[in-house]
Design goal:
29% of the residues lie in helices and 26% in strands. It is α+β, with helices and mostly antiparallel strands.
């Protein structure tokens, strides 16, 4: 039901009409009169009470509540929002002289060149340079550089930075002169949005029947944010027939499944699968796609001026592709047009050198390898 919301002017007009209709003689309700001042004061209070009612109704419905209010609503069903995750990667610490040894403590902080994103040196006991006794990495005499793992301090997609942007040592490390990341950091994702949270709640209700594709899909989506999946029944994952087996092809944006994620997925699927059925978890095979397109610009506008916005728009399209999803030339054209109003025409689109849509196998997912603009 839509609330009959009234504005301040409507409230004042209705009050004036009610008063004049209830008296026999003329009364002064003109601006500046005492009665008009009282009417406007009452209208202001009524407007405030109306706003409070609207706020209460908004917060008590999942369809309209937001943020922490939506979290508290869902908490009645023990349904929790997927939290943000921190990006991770590898940095190379270098020094000009290796005449003496250096110690790099776990927890040392490095930053991007503009200082906006901070990373902490993470503990990796499998690294040959790690010393448990010192809780640090050791750079012995003669070693000029060492590669170490880092994790973004603040969870979220902002921690996904491109290569060669982590260049500042925020924590002084004796004997280390420079730091750089040869590759981009990955894996950072924002907390689940309100819209995605509501959509997953629908899947949660559908999963209560258990032992269905909806149930398994919901269990997978609740393990971590931004997980894409495809379920194949009675398959062995290689296209063969295997009765009673479910193959879950997974992509979390990294192109691989680490042991921690695999364990969490296995636990989640085991809780909802049917008795007597089996399942396999496989990482989606990454298909790298090189995109090339030709832009016709408004006279006087260089193609280079829109390169970053067009690249971001096309990368955003690839991010929406599901496992086994087709890469569409027309969708890429649409993304390019939406990037900048100064683009007059988009043509010559090729995907890995071909002029047709790219068909992706059910166990594969397309990643954008490069974007060439002409």
């Amino acid at each position: 039901m839509n609330l009959p919301i009234r504005g301040f002017t409507d409230l004042v007009r209705d009050m004036c009409s009610a008063i004049t209709a209830s008296v026999e003689g003329l009364i002064d309700v003109s601006i500046g009169s005492i009665l008009r001042a009282m009417i406007e004061a009452n209208a202001a209070i009524a407007l405030w009470l109306q706003w409070l009612v609207a706020q209460v109704l908004q917060m008590t419905r999942a369809a309209t509540s937001k943020g922490s209010d939506l979290d508290s609503w869902m908490a009645d069903f023990s349904f929790i929002r997927c939290p943000a995750s921190s990006a991770s990667g590898t940095v190379t610490l270098s020094r000009n002289s290796a005449a003496v040894g250096s110690v790099v403590p776990a927890g040392a902080v490095v930053k991007t060149s503009d200082g906006s994103v901070s990373f902490v040196i993470a503990t990796d006991a499998s690294n040959s340079a790690w010393s448990s006794a010192s809780a640090a990495y050791l750079m012995p005499i003669g070693l000029l550089a060492i590669d170490l793992p880092v994790t973004a301090i603040v969870p979220g997609s902002g921690g996904n930075v491109v290569a060669s942007t982590i260049t500042l040592l925020a924590s002084p490390v004796t004997g280390v002169d420079s730091v750089v990341n040869a590759y981009a950091t990955v894996g950072g994702s924002d907390a689940e949005s309100d819209d995605a949270f509501r959509a997953r709640f629908s899947s949660f209700l559908a999963s209560l029947s258990r032992a269905t594709q909806d149930a398994i899909g919901y269990a997978i989506s609740g393990v971590a944010p931004n997980i894409k999946y495809l379920l194949l029944e009675n398959s062995d994952g290689a296209g063969g027939f295997r009765p009673g087996n479910i193959v879950a092809t997974i992509d979390d944006g990294t192109g691989a499944i680490d042991s921690e994620l695999y364990s969490a997925l296995a636990t989640a699927i085991t809780a909802v699968r049917g008795v007597g059925t089996m399942f396999s978890i496989l990482p989606a095979t990454v298909v790298q796609v090189a995109v090339s397109l030709t832009l016709a610009m408004t006279p006087g506008v260089a193609t280079s001026s829109v390169q970053s916005s067009v690249s971001a728009a096309i990368a955003g399209y690839f991010a929406t592709l599901a496992v086994g999803g087709q890469v569409s030339i027309t969708r890429i054209s649409q993304a390019a047009y939406s990037a900048d109003a100064r683009i007059l025409n988009v043509g010559g689109i090729t995907l890995n050198g071909t002029l047709v849509d790219l068909q992706i196998e059910p166990t594969c997912i397309a990643y954008c390898q490069s974007i060439g603009l002409n």
